[in-house]
Design brief:
The complex is a heterodimer.
Chain A lengths: L1 H15 L2 H27 L9 H4 L2 H14 L1 H9 L1 H6 L5 H20 L5 H8 L8 H27 L4 H24 L6 H8 L2 H9 L5 H23 L5
Chain B lengths: L14 E10 L2 E11 L4 E5 L6 H8 L7 E6 L2 E2 L4 H7 E4 L11 H11 L4 H14 L15 H13 L5 E4 L8 H14 L4 E6 L2 H5 L4 E6 L2 E6 L1 H7 L6 E6 L2 H10 L3 E8 L4 E8 L6 H11 L3 E6 L4 H13 L1
Parallel strand pairs in B: 3-8, 3-9, 6-7, 7-8
Antiparallel strand pairs in B: 1-2, 1-4, 4-5, 9-10, 11-13, 11-14, 12-13
Helix pairs in contact in B: 3-4, 4-5, 5-6
The chains are: A mainly alpha, B alpha/beta.
Chain lengths: 250, 325
């Protein structure tokens, strides 16, 4: 446990010790600020009686953050250590592969969640300034954050996996961007295709990240969604463990 | 050079390597490598790039797994009890990779904690290694801003911070200036007292002066393993002596003829009234004391007396030729 904490602290600190970390923070703040602007604009135009958090994913900016920023956060996890050679010094200390993978994942997820932290102020800002009192409930706000965290952890695990396959950070980022966008597109396909009774359509809706986020943002915590993201995260972390253990394959 | 106190047989060797083979795809990086290293020995791995030194070291340090063969360090199997082995090994990989965004003390503490030292123990040990490698002045500096010599010392301090029984250093002096090389070499020599050390290099004098045993790698095999003195004896025939004396060539001619240990000689005039002689001694004997005594006895002014040092090429040419025969 001590080793895991030491490694996680180092991972998290690593994000703040590079210029890249601050570019990410600034970029995310810009996009989230923009989404606040769009929400305010939506409130100005017509009265809104649904939870205000529902507006959040539909601005589209959250998806931009998720698809563009997560690969940039995770690309360094393994690829950077492999290219600088510190991966060798790390793996020759008495740490287990699982400890390393979990620490890198936790560090990346922690940084990702921190970039969303300023967003926690949005409900209060809206409450304070909105002329027409918008519906800001603690419940939907919490479930929206849960959705951000769960979908984020899946994308983080995916990014860790692609980063563990290569020593090039660019390749790692491109691969996780491609996979992530692919998964998003599958959801989008379910969104835009006309509703039918086919199992294909049902399957598309079922794995649609857009659909899931819509639920989370309206205050619905569906255990299927929770299990979906937790299991996908576990699968990709398992694959990451296998990838970094592959150097010991005969 | 070869200190006999290091050769005292210990009940159990520190490192036992048996029939180690590592394939990358179908290309063997090392083939059937076997050796043992006793407690307190300093062993030098010698060979050109790609000869299998780094691969062997990586397997010993528990980073890679061998395709075939076993490695036991302090009685623990590298494949089966990897973490036990890693606890006992301090490894500095090639090019000494460090986190350039960390400060020296912070980095060493991070490493000590990873290697399983408690908070208090890591603090104490980090203070000790900082002292030992003279890093006090840079302890608060960023590693990325350090000179290469300092970086190397940080790498050595890291390899030692958990007091490992075995220290494996891959090319510890590569890219250093001669002064830094000397400092690092001194550091390594100090370690011999209570550690077993493996160093790799492709420069012979480098390992010759520090090691009790040399292992020469060639195309994935160990082609020679012996003490530096014995290796030198084997290759003695090629160790020629250069002398510059002020004397008549004819006189010198007869002097060398009379010296039984001189197998072959050649005299060429040098600047001034000096004569440059190249002597090939029999059985690799070191004739320098005899020649100096002779010059003194005859009253010849002597301005140079050197014995060829082996270059890696010499050893290489010699050993690989022997292999092919």
């Amino acid at each position: 446990m001590g080793t895991f904490i030491t490694l996680t602290r180092r991972e998290l600190a690593g994000h703040f010790l590079s210029f890249r970390g601050y570019v990410i923070l600034a970029g995310v703040q810009f996009l989230l600020g923009l989404s606040l602007l769009l929400i305010v604009d939506a409130l100005n135009n017509r009265p809104f009686d649904l939870p205000i958090t529902e507006k959040f994913p539909s601005t589209g900016l959250f998806w931009l953050v998720l698809l563009l920023v997560t690969p940039v956060i995770t690309m360094r996890t393994f690829a950077r250590e492999k290219s600088t050679g510190t991966f060798e010094t790390l793996m020759t200390t008495p740490v287990s592969d699982l400890q390393v993978v979990m620490a890198k994942f936790t560090g990346a997820l922690g940084f990702y969640l921190l970039t969303f932290l300023p967003m926690a102020a949005f409900p209060f800002i809206l409450k304070h300034y909105a002329a027409v009192f918008p519906v800001v409930d603690a419940g939907p706000v919490a479930s929206t954050f849960l959705g951000i965290a769960l979908i984020g952890s899946f994308f983080m695990a995916l990014g860790c996996f692609t980063s563990s396959l290569t020593r090039s950070q660019i390749v790692a980022a491109m691969a996780s961007f491609t996979l992530g966008t692919g998964i998003f597109m599958v959801g989008l396909l379910g969104e835009i295709s006309p509703p039918t009774d086919t199992p294909m359509y049902a399957a598309l809706r079922h794995i649609s990240v857009l659909e899931h986020m819509k639920d989370f943002s309206s205050g619905i915590i569906d255990s299927r969604h929770v299990i979906f993201y937790l299991s996908l995260t576990a699968v990709f972390l398992f694959l990451t463990c296998q990838a970094i253990g592959s150097r010991r394959w005969k | 050079m070869a200190d006999d106190t290091h050769d005292i047989p210990t009940p159990k060797p520190m490192i036992e390597v048996e029939n180690l083979t590592k394939l990358y795809g179908s290309r063997p990086a090392i083939r059937d490598v076997s050796f043992t290293v006793g407690r307190g020995e300093i062993v030098g791995f010698l060979g050109p790039n790609g000869a299998g030194k780094s691969t062997t070291m990586r397997i010993l340090a528990g980073f890679l797994a061998a395709t075939e063969g076993t490695v036991r360090i302090a009685g623990h199997d590298v494949a089966g009890a990897s973490r036990e082995v890693r606890r006992r090994v301090g490894f500095m990989p090639e090019n000494n990779p460090l986190h350039s965004d960390m400060r020296v003390r912070e980095y060493l503490k991070f490493r000590a904690r990873l290697k399983g030292l408690s908070r208090q123990a890591s603090r104490d040990r980090v203070d000790e290694v900082i002292e030992q490698f003279d890093l006090t002045d840079v302890a608060r500096q960023m590693i990325g801003e350090l000179s290469k010599g300092y970086r190397q010392r940080v790498g050595l301090a890291d390899a030692l911070v958990h007091e490992p029984a075995v220290i494996i250093l891959d090319e510890p002096t590569i890219g250093l200036d001669p002064h830094q090389v000397r400092t690092v070499r001194q550091c390594i020599k100090q370690l011999a007292d209570n550690h077993t050390v493996l160093i790799s290099s492709h420069i012979l004098p480098e390992v010759e002066v520090t090691c009790t045993k040399l292992m020469i790698f060639h195309e994935g095999r160990v082609v020679a393993a012996d003490t530096p003195a014995n290796l030198e004896r084997t290759l003695g025939g090629q160790q020629r002596i250069t002398v510059e004396l002020e004397a008549e060539p004819e006189v010198l001619e007869t002097a060398w003829e009379e010296m039984a240990e001189v197998e072959h000689h050649r005299i060429t005039p040098a600047e001034g009234r000096y004569q440059r002689c190249r002597l090939t001694p029999r059985d690799g004997l070191d004739l320098r004391p005899e020649i100096a005594a002779l010059a003194r006895a005859r009253g010849w002014p002597l301005r140079e007396l050197t014995r060829d040092r082996h270059t890696l090429e010499d050893i290489f040419v010699h050993i690989t030729r022997k292999e092919e025969d």
